[in-house]
Amino acid sequence: MMIKKRLFISNILMLVVPAILIVAIAGGVLEGFVEIYGKKIKVLDDNNGTYYVQKALNSYSKNLKDYNKQNQEDRKIEEVLKEVGYNLIITSNEETIFSNLTDEDKNSISKVKSDMLSSSDSIVLEVNSVCLVKNTFIKDDKTINMIAIRSNVLMGREHMKAEVKAFFVSYMGIVFVIALFIIVLTNGILSSRLAKSLIEPLDLLSYGAGQIEEGNLDFKMNYKGKDEFSKVCADFDKMRIRLKESVKMQLKYEENRKELVVGISHDLRTPLTTIKGYVKGLKDGVASTPEKCERYHDIIYNKACDMDMLVDKLFLFSKLDTGKFPFNFQKVYFNEFLRSFFKRAIDEFERKGLKLFYENSCNDDILINIDSEEMNRVLVNILENSVKYKVKDYGNVNVTVNKQEDSIVLRIKDDGPGVLEENLSRLFVSFYRGDAARTNPSEGSGLGLSISEYIVKAHGGTITAENMDGLAITITLPISGQHEMREENI
Fold first, then answer.
1. Where does residue 59 rank: exposed (0-12), middle (13-18), buried (19+ CB within 10 A)?
2. Could you tell me the residue ranges of all domains in the chain?
3. Cα–Cα distance between 38 and 167 in angstroms, integer?
4. 217-324: which CATH architecture?
5. Which residue among 152, 181, 196, 263 is least packed, with the fewest CB closer than 10 Å?
6. How many CB atoms lie within 10 A of CB 365?
7. 393-440, pLDDT tens digit by residue?
């Protein structure tokens, strides 16, 4: 799930879940409070509590055993009536056996007609702000009067308001605490889950950065999530792979540079040593005849020419390597280009002991975008390589040209000794030669095939080598079009 969607759902849940839980729990708490406070408020509000008082007096009369003295039941009924604001007086044959009346209560009773109080009837009386409940019964020939009085009804109402206020404050306080706890708990759980989903990929990225810093590029970013971090981790892993390839290429480049320096040093030192030797021979008078002096001069000149050719190739190689070589690309008919090249090359290489056989199955109207001069250099380098390593007085080279989809495939195969399979991958490396000891510099500089590879790649093509009863070099070049130039000529 995307982080944006996850944040939206998390925010909604942070509002909805606490709201539902708070309402549900608040309802349950309300039922409990109503159960407790409802009875009190109902008693206080039910005809000023007279019904409740009547029930309490009846219960008291049934449980009371001795009507001549105070007992524990008096204290119980006293506490019950006080809850609703009533005081009590109990008389037996007009003799008081219990009373907790206040002066105000006594004053209120004195205002009630005496015949009403002395009668044997049970009465409920409310006058002005006075509520009076009388319960009279006869037991063991004794008249028991129980009078419960509340002198100030307004005080009872205030008491009810206080109860309601206490109920509201207590209820709201508990609901507030519960709501706060639910909100904190819900937000904590959702935030921790969201934070975990963010911290895990961040830790993975931090681990990856640490591994790269330590030089380890062989780890993998195994992130299984399907959010924005999935693409970030995938891109990070691609960067790691490309960095690993870059480091590998850099190491290879450094190795090639070392070989290049060694090759240059060796291939320059050999002719220089020869030149120094023959010059010293001339100075020391070793060449004592004109014929010998002329031979020495010819050798020195030829070695200097070899060095000059090597320097030219190094200069060309350096420009190709840095990408600063000025190619002159033009669209040409490929068959015409090849016929022109082999018309000159057949006689030239036959004098060097190489017979060329040319076979072309492509149409004459195929156009290709090349630098003709540099492509000539590629073909000459390959054929020169076949000349150097031929094992017979006359070597054979078969050149075939075919079309494959949008490309031209040019294969140049000789009947020489080929190359060891493990050395095929190094054939296009600068200064590589089959002669590992480099004891025969006349065989070449080792730059020919390397230069050829640079030129072919600059043309958007590929060049490969394989053993096929000799060495076969295959060049693939993209086709630029057909008929265009011929139509223009018409």
1. middle
2. 1-214, 217-324, 327-489
3. 9
4. Orthogonal Bundle (1.10)
5. 196
6. 15
7. 889 999 999 988 889 999 999 988 888 887 787 777 655 554 443 334
Does position 485 have pLDDT exceeding 50, yes or no?
no
Residue 264 corresponds to which amino acid?
Answer: I
3-class SS string, the chain: CCHHHHHHHHHHHHHHHHHHHHHHHHHHHHHHHHHHHHHHHHHHHCHHHHHHHHHHHHHHHHHCCCCCCCCHHHHHHHHHHHCCCCEEEEEECCEEEEECCCHHHHHHHHCCCHHHHHCCCCEEEEECCEEEEEEEEEECCEEEEEEEEECCHHHHHHHHHHHHHHHHHHHHHHHHHHHHHHHHHHHHHHHHHHHHHHHHHHHHHHHHHHHHHCCCCCCCCCCCCCCHHHHHHHHHHHHHHHHHHHHHHHHHHHHHHHHHHHHHHHHHHHHHHHHHHHHHHHHCCCCCCHHHHHHHHHHHHHHHHHHHHHHHHHHHHHHHHHCCCCCCCEEEEHHHHHHHHHHHHHHHHHCCCEEEEEEECCCCCEEEEECHHHHHHHHHHHHHHHHHCCCCCCEEEEEEEEEECCEEEEEEEECCCCCCHHHHHHCCCCCCCCCCCCCCHHHCCCCHHHHHHHHHHHCCCEEEEEECCCEEEEEEEECCEECHHHHHHC
Q: What is the pLDDT of residues 204-254, one digit of tens each?
A: 888 888 888 888 888 887 777 777 777 888 888 888 888 888 888 888 777
How far apart CA 34 and CA 387 sit, in angstroms, is 112
pTM: 0.47
**Does 327-489 match 217-324 at the fold level?**
no
The whole-chain average pLDDT of the chain stands at: 77
- Residue pair 147/131 in contact (Cβ under 8 Å)? The answer is no
